[in-house]
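Sample intake sheet
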Amino acid sequence: MGNSHNIHYCVGAFAVLTMVVALAAQELTIPERVARGATGRFSNIPSGKPPSVSDVLSRTDLIVRGIVGDSHGYLSDDLMEVDMDYELKNPVILYDAESTPVARPAAARSLLH
């Protein structure tokens, strides 16, 4: 009887693993979704207590203030996401993790090479 339970658990685990792999394989690229008639996808913004400023800054490389200009959208290399680049006019660096602290914000260096 013990072997019978083990076989059922193995078969059950295999069935679950097979379903997970099948669902992952069904993830379509954006061009495939559009070809099937998709027009958009919803995203959920996480809820809960917002992070502290010090927590955000501990994970931040650069904070820049400026005017958002022209944008350029393109597909990611895996064709699963739309990435966007934005021109930033009159940028001012407010925080740079790689620089020494300054008393006041300075004019921005070029962010594009």
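Comment: Helices lie at 2-25, 30-35, 53-58. The chain has two domains: 1-41, 52-113.
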